[in-house]
Specification:
171 residues; alpha/beta; Rossmann fold; five-stranded parallel β-sheet; 41% helix; transferase; pantetheine-phosphate adenylyltransferase activity
């Protein structure tokens, strides 16, 4: 568990998520976190129980897609994790979690998660950034749904993800 020190500067943060798949909205949050902190770890969660069915892409595939999509950003690494987020933060030496917020519904969910994380480890800060207006509507689930019907998702995700979705949904 972290010691809660008021004079400790945070230099390493996590941007966690399922990233199923990574979108331009996720990339925006990562870039913004990187502007604020010198070291950002994108923490790709296993999330076996997501939406009652599990993720569309395997953990290995989601990590690979994220690494390729974020490869041009210095100071950013992508790592898979299982278990509690605060445990992973301690494992990698991250002092905070950065989450993007799109709407009030995101805020309510993320506040609940932040409160729980604080109870588990008060030394891991929670930091929220508002989504850019151009990505306020964007979610991985919407991208998956559009792709599953053969729709064009190229304005929502990087080229490597477009290709992976076409292969996954055979369109």
């Amino acid at each position: 568990m972290h010691d809660v020190l008021t004079d400790q500067t945070i230099t390493h943060v996590l941007v966690p998520g399922t990233f199923d798949p990574i979108t331009f909205g996720h990339i925006d949050v990562v870039r913004r976190a990187r502007r604020l902190f010198p070291h950002v770890t994108v923490a790709v969660a296993e999330s076996l129980g997501k939406n009652g069915t599990g993720p569309t892409f395997s953990l290995q595939d989601r990590v690979s897609l994220a690494r390729e999509a974020l490869g041009d950003i210095d100071g950013v690494e992508v790592r898979p994790f299982t278990g509690l987020l605060v445990d992973f933060a301690n494992e990698v030496g991250a002092g905070a979690v950065v989450k993007g917020l799109r709407a009030m519904t995101d805020f309510e969910y993320e506040l609940q998660q932040a409160d729980l994380n604080y109870r588990l480890d008060p030394g891991v800060e929670s930091i929220f950034v508002m989504s850019s207006p151009e990505y306020g509507y964007l979610s991985s689930s919407v991208v998956r749904q559009i792709a599953s019907f053969g729709g064009d998702v190229s304005e929502f995700v990087p080229d490597n993800v477009v290709k992976a979705l076409k292969e996954r949904f055979k369109c």
